Amino acid sequence: MKTENQRAWFFVLPVLFLVAFNALVPMMTVVNYSVQETFGNNQFFWQGLDWFEQILRSDRFQAALGRQFLFTGIILAIEVPLGIIIALSMPRKGFWVPVCLVLMALPMLIPWNVVGAMWNIFALPKIGMLGYFMNDVLGVNYDMTQDPLAAWITIIVMDVWHWTSLVVLLCYAGLVSIPDAYYQAAKIDGASAWSVFRYIQLPKMKTVLTIAILLRFMDSFNIYTEPFVLTGGGPGNSTTLLSIDLVKIALGQFDLGPAAAMSLIYFAITLLVSWVFYVVMTKDDQ
Amino acid sequence: MAEIKLSNLKHSYFPAPKGPDDFALKEIDVTWRDGGAYALLGPSGCGKSTLLNIISGLLTPSEGRVLFGDQDVTELEPDKRNIAQVFQFPVIYDTMTVRQNLAFPLKNRGVDEATIARRVAEIAEMLDVTEMLDTRAAGLSPDNKQKISMGRGLVRDDVNVVMFDEPLTVIDPHLKWKLRSKLKELHQRIAVTMIYVTHDQTEALTFADEVVVMQDGVVVQIGTPVELFERPQHTFVGHFIGSPGMNILPCEARGDHASFAGHSVNLEGPVQGAGGSTELGIRPEYVSVADQGVPATVTKVSDVGRHFVIDAMVGETRLKVVSEHSAPEQGSAVHLAFRPDQTRVYRDGWIATEARS
Known about the structure:
Chain A is mostly helical.
């Protein structure tokens, strides 16, 4: 007969408290705001799902969401292949390994708003090195404060500079774990470089690549600091990504109800897309 | 299909080797007969894998030539040499099915579909993997994975040699002998040269027609299992092969007998040469407890099932005796007799007695 022992619950209590305080309680506050209208003197009125409906129907939210997917799509399309190519071309052993690793890790060690500030100064026309070089040396009209395209190119290049290393380092870790025998066997089997990549390196990198793509998706989808410091969402609203828009609604306009509803929708989308990614990328493993 | 000849082979992993210690392979001259089953036996780090990688072309030797028949292949890439190699850890292409794995070397060489299908079916049948042909290779057990990596080597009908680099390391003990007999069977069926690298004497002696014993980058003896056991050319072979290994005892050589611990011992024949350090070599199987001979004290008796292994001390020297039927008490004083035709003298490690025919 199975003995029932309720004491086990006590052992999960610490975790429960921890999760409650750092996730559930703050989250429930947001849920609380999302279904009510608040006024300054702590008065609350029940709104139901009105805020959700309003947000989902608003052109402003849809435009920001569109920009967000475009941004994330572009940086994933650049950072993942680029990261794999860099990881493949890094040395496997010898003196240059630590040098490469440190160089790769450097951009990730810089605080996010410093990255934004750096690129801001770097890209400004007249005073920034990039801005000066583009406008006055190459004669290309490049001004991210005026031109939406220039602003987009700048935030994308900045993100690629900042975060490709993460993909590189994760892929590199996957690559160095491949035993030499695999490469030797492939050589004897007469495999081409492409076959080696397709049938040995890519499958061995798959797990870390899944993690890299998930992390890059979540981070880029929730990105705030760097584009905010760089462009402030402008010119106009052209680089106003979801989180920037959310902060504008919550703290700029102090519309806590719609902001809370938007947060939950935002969270749900991030969760859903991450889950789909994960399911698709690991479906072969079963 | 051709005879493989290694001549004056030397290899160092250092770009500018200074002394003989920098060489992983010191001076290798070996000829591998076409269709032979060879084992390359030696302790870890003796250079066997280096030698194997030179034959397969994964390494280019610092000096010397590799000849396949009349063709000098020393500088040739592995895929141009028509060789196959099976590694210590099974190498399979995870994302492919077993069938695709087996077909891979043929596909890369542009063989037509019909031939591929026929060869894959033949090899799968030989390896008993026909029923798993359409499963993903990633999910197989280690012994089946190792079979598939062997299959990828055997699927080409133009291979000069199939090399096995300690292929049974990761296989469960009860499957080892199965795979080993499978290999032996395959060798009989397709009669291709096979070189089997191992540090396990049982594997080497059961698989091979001829065993190449290596130590410290040098080939110490090439011979059939019986030759290696009966008449080791070097004390290392004597000690490495056999369980327990040969007794190597300090002695002084005097004509056709030797003096060991103050007692005269008859030898298989006269001792050649002079100088150097001399040692007496005799296998424990040929030492027996007798009424007279070298006095010794029994320190330990182990019953290993089929026979007894007796540890005895003669003065300060320890030696082992294998006794079929009975064993003396531990601590008792006995006399040991050495069978003369199996008693040899080694000078600086190499055999120095000449057998009377």
